[in-house]
């Protein structure tokens, strides 16, 4: 073979080796790019699953809190001595805690009453919101695994166990609260007027009305399409700093829409259609609340049937509501008889 042919062959072999090397590099880059994307997707999916698990756990704890209201509040612990409340002050089933506003994890002082009666012409009414109160413990419910300010919490104001807007004697609650939602009266001021019977909660999640409670994981702080940057180092209560936790929502042309931080009744969870929203939201619907309350009541119907139903003789949360003789009454007895069988 001539020197020229040998030289050309070496050049040809070198070109092939170089081409193979380029292909290997490009292939490796593509592989690791796909691997990285899949890894990141896997991490995002894993984080989402863990967040949903935490929110579902909180949801069940809140339902337990509501179902066991009579047991939780049947007594005060004073100097390590249990002092039983008057029977006419023990709340019935169904109530949730007020939100934590100052971010200390507890519901204290002015936070213990949180009314905001619904005005059908004002979408910022009918609910209250703040941080999830994780600092309290009871004989039945413990939120210690969560940190203060970790979650936002939205609740229909008729369903909170501290609401002095309604005139129910010393109970400080909306009553009667039951699965038929049969209100006794308007707020003390008479304005807005009392809601009609069977008026379900109007907290709205992703276009669906009927939520009693929402629990919101705010996700990581972000900068939005309009330039607003969330900053969670600023002082202020849960209402003042809501924009630093809950997200804004935009359309495809970057126009600001109803969003989680605008204090109205419409809320949105992370989805492809909710541009700008990385909040993850889990809720308790009114139907879920109804089912949980009825399950407890129906299981105890034989015991409840033995209790005097005359509110003039016995002020008790199961019995009919009476503003004077039984302000804690929930009017559950008729519902018990119609829903739970003989």
List its traits.
single chain; 342 residues; alpha+beta; 5 helices
Description:
The protein is of the alpha+beta class. The protein has one domain (46-75, 83-340). Helix content is 28%, strand content 11%. It has helices spanning 3-67, 69-72, 286-299, 301-304, 332-339, and strands at residues 75-78, 81-84, 127-131, 152-156, 203-205, 208-217, 266-267, 280-285. The radius of gyration is 28 Å and the shape is elongated. The termini are far apart. The model is unreliable at 22-43 (pLDDT under 50).
Strand content: 5-15%
**Percent helix:** 25-40%
Give the helix tally. Answer: 5
Q: Quickly give the structural class.
A: alpha+beta
Which residue ranges are poorly predicted, with pLDDT under 50 across at least 5 consecutive positions? Answer: 22-43
Question: For the report, how would you describe the main beta sheet?
Answer: 6 strands, mixed
Tell me the series of helices and strands, N- to C-terminal: HHEEEEEEEEHHH
| Overall mean pLDDT | 84
**Radius of gyration, rounded?**
28 Å
Number of domains in the coordinates? 1
Task: Please provide the count of β strands.
Answer: 8
For the termini, the CA-CA separation is: 107 Å
Shape: elongated
């Amino acid at each position: 073979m001539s020197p020229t042919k040998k030289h050309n062959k070496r050049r040809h072999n070198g070109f092939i080796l170089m081409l193979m090397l380029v292909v290997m590099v490009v292939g490796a880059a593509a592989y690791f790019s796909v691997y990285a994307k899949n890894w990141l997707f896997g991490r995002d999916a894993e984080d989402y699953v863990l967040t949903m698990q935490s929110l579902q756990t909180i949801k069940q704890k809140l339902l337990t809190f509501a179902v066991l209201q009579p047991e939780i509040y049947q007594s005060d612990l004073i100097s390590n001595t249990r002092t039983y409340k008057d029977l006419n002050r023990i709340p019935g089933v169904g109530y949730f805690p007020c939100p934590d506003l100052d971010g200390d994890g507890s519901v204290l002082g002015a936070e213990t009453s949180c009314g905001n009666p619904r005005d059908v012409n004002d979408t910022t009414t009918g609910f209250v919101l703040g941080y999830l109160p994780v600092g309290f413990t009871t004989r039945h419910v413990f939120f210690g695994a969560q940190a203060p300010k970790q979650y936002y919490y939205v609740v229909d104001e008729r369903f909170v166990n501290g609401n002095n807007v309604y005139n129910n004697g010393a109970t400080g609650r909306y009553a009667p609260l039951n699965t038929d939602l049969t209100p006794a009266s308007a707020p003390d001021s008479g304005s807005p007027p009392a809601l009609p019977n069977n008026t379900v909660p109007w907290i709205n999640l992703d276009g669906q009305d009927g939520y009693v409670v929402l629990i919101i994981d705010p996700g990581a702080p972000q900068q939005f399409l309009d330039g607003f940057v969330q900053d969670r180092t600023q002082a202020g209560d849960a209402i003042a700093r809501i924009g630093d936790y809950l997200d804004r929502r935009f359309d495809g042309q970057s126009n600001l829409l109803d969003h989680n931080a605008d204090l109205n009744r419409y809320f949105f969870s992370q989805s492809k259609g909710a541009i700008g929203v990385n909040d993850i939201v889990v809720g308790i619907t009114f139907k879920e609340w109804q089912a949980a309350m009825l399950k407890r009541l129906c299981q105890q119907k034989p015991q409840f049937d033995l209790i005097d139903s005359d509110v003039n003789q016995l002020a008790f949360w199961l019995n009919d509501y009476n503003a004077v003789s039984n302000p804690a009454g929930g009017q559950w007895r008729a519902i018990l008889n119609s829903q739970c069988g003989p």
